[in-house]
Amino acid sequence: MPNGLSIHIGLNSVDPAKYDGWDGQLNACENDARDMAALARANGFDEKVILTPDGTVENITAALRDAAGRLTAGGILLFTYSGHGGQVDDTTGDEPDKLDETLVFYDRMFLDDELYAEFRRMPEGVRIVALLDCCHSGSGIESVQDMLTPEALESQFKTKDPAKVEAASRLMPMFKQQEVLARDREFYTGLQRELKNARDGVREPDALLIAACQDNQVASDGDVNGLFTAHLLKVWDDGQFRGGYRTFHRAIQRRMPAIQSPNLYLTGAPATSFLDQKPFTV
Question: Is 84 considered catalytic here?
């Protein structure tokens, strides 16, 4: 029988000792994780929730590897993350924008390539769904401020003051990204090289990603849920939604402001039958 496992991560802050004094305070990420876990549980998943202080690279990779050991062909992994997003320079030439996106875990930034490496551990035939409510900003907050009118800022972030956008979004501040990268450049460069060598000749995971925004956009936090997660839950409507993953993505996208447009991204070759399934079908 197909089985379903889900991992839900919500980080309302990070360890300031690991980020040169920055604690990355957010409001709604833990709520996002709990609400997505409740959704998963209601649909037959065996769920695991990882909240702020436990959101370390070691704990999250251990959860992913445990899932890889338990899932079998025909099963499904649901992975959700709510927290800050960041970027580091891509030193291996894989990224068109020359930047690797990161998930900002409690103790360090986790490369998108690391996440895909963990997904590759899943047995062949396992369906993988990732929902990321974080910033994947290709141009950073300074450029975003240049692009947006005060009215657009107020629409998304409830403020016309560009200086307050950072506090209302899930973007790791650019100056802090640069500080951490300068401090740990050798580590990240070595990690990128190691990951590139490890994936040569290895199959891509058949995964579906719905991200909260495009690479050159920022994602809004909130009082109860992040903007993306809030609209995802409204579209899902306690299971009343009808349609496949593409329809699900479009329905969420229609609810979102133009300056935060959720992205649908596929790796490998997910089966059409998977993409056409009602979301969260075990």
Answer: yes
